[in-house]
Amino acid sequence: MNNKKEIVIGFAVGIIANIIGTLLYILLFSDFGIMETFNAAFKQGHIGSLLALGAILNLIAFFGFLKLRRDQRAKGVLIATLLTAMVILYYKIF
Question: Exposed/middle/buried for 17, CB within 10 Å: 0-12, 13-18, 19+?
């Protein structure tokens, strides 16, 4: 049971890191507000690129958990990253 809890914690950290990474990218590199950037990215078909850039923070979380020997949490971050990749694939195909 404890392993599942650790994986869920890692998954939550991965999702939160992705959201923070996406928002940081928008705030640092976009001339528009958050919603305007999301709307423009959606209309132009670049929402996948935004999500992929946000997932860069997952690298820090993943390797941080590995360094701390929290392998189950690192597995959760990996699952969150794979989910992000599936969402990006969905947006690219449809």
Answer: buried
- Does this model's pTM top 0.85? yes
Task: Characterise 14 by phi-psi region: left (phi > 0), alpha (psi -120 to 50), beta (else).
Answer: alpha
For residue 71, what pLDDT is reported? 96
Res. 29: pLDDT tops 90: yes
Count of other CB atoms within 10 angstroms of residue 18: 25
**Cα separation, 73 vs 77, whole angstroms:** 6
Instruction: Please answer whether residues 32 and 40 qualify as being in contact, where contact means their C-beta atoms are separated by less than 8 angstroms.
Output: yes
For the stretch 82-94, pLDDT in tens is 999 999 999 888 8
Sign of the CA dihedral running 16, 39, 86, 1: positive
What are 81's two structure tokens?
A: 């990253």
